Amino acid sequence: MDTATIIPTMPVNVFSDSMIDAESVAEIPQQTVSHVRPWIRYLARATDVFLFSLIVGFMAGMFAPSILEVPTAFLNLGILFVWIFQEAILLANCGTTPGKWLFKIKVRDREGRKFKFADALNRSFSVWLKGMGAGVPLLSLIALVSSRSKLKRDGITTWDEEGGFVVTHGRIGFLRSAVVVLLLVGFVYLIALGNAMEEQEEYGIISDSVQSHETHAKSTQSLLMEIEEAPAVESEENNHDVQTDFNRAIEMAERWLESQSDF
After folding, report:
1. How would you classify residue 235: left for phi > 0, otherwise alpha for psi between -120 and 50, otherwise beta?
2. What pLDDT does residue 256 have?
3. Among 97, 100, 95, 99, which residue's Cα sits nearest to residue 116?
4. pLDDT tens sequence across 171-196
């Protein structure tokens, strides 16, 4: 007698669904930041802003020196705002910035591609506002501390999470580390030099003001002395004229008496 044996099998759709779930789980780590290095990211951005400030200062000194007369605080705010657009252009065309290249930081979308300009501009604006507090001193400090806490806690910043951006870090070699140290030393030196020049200018202004006041006081004093001496001189001259006239009158009187005695 023929018999048929029925072997239970797993449904194909269940197996395929489990494979898809496994693949999606395996892709999750690839969409997150591979390393959490807030200080490296901050130094990279500080390097970008520092180099951009040098270029702006050089160009302004060559073609528009009057811009350098703007107070330093407002000038820094303006440079930081203009950097938004320059960073977006670099990210959209080159895929990196000088600071990110030096510190071996890559920023890509979820598919590993370079940004479109609109996405790059959106990210740069978010970093400027949410990460740097638009450069306003106290607000900037609060924004930096908050962004660092978010990155350390969740492994991703607010702007990267909202835009779906992926930040990865590479190993920084000895040569790049040496360049970084030189840039930091140069940055600190230029800041100290700028502060010294500002103090010297303020001291020069104060010295000029003091000298002008002293000159004015001396001129006023000399003028008063001339005014005081002028009547004395005139009085002496007047006295001298009176004395001369008096002597002449006496001589004439004596001569007249002598002429009278001869008769």
Report:
1. alpha
2. 54
3. 95
4. 888 888 888 888 778 777 877 776 77
C-alpha to C-alpha distance for 237 and 240, rounded to whole angstroms: 5
- Does 126 reside within a domain? yes
CA distance 23 to 11: 19
Residue 226 lies in a domain: no
- DSSP H helical segments within the chain, as ranges? 12-27, 38-63, 72-93, 98-102, 117-126, 137-154, 158-163, 174-261
Torsion of CA 114, 119, 125, 128, to 10 degrees: -30
113-135: burial string, b at 16+ Cβ within 10 Å, e else:
ebbeeebbbbbbbbbbebbbbeb
Q: How many structural domains comprise the chain? A: 1
Q: CA dihedral in degrees (224, 230, 231, 235; nearest 10)?
A: 160
Distance CA 148, CA 156 (A): 9
**Which range marks the domain in which residue 92 is found?**
31-172
**What is the amino acid identity at position 77?**
L
Question: Does 256 fall in a domain?
Answer: no
Predicted confidence (pLDDT) at residue 216 exceeds the cutoff of 50: yes
pLDDT at 158 over 90: yes
The Cα-based distances of 67 to 64, 76, 106, 168 in angstroms read: 6, 12, 34, 38
Q: Is the pLDDT assigned to residue 203 strictly greater than 70?
A: no
Residue 147, domain member (yes or no): yes
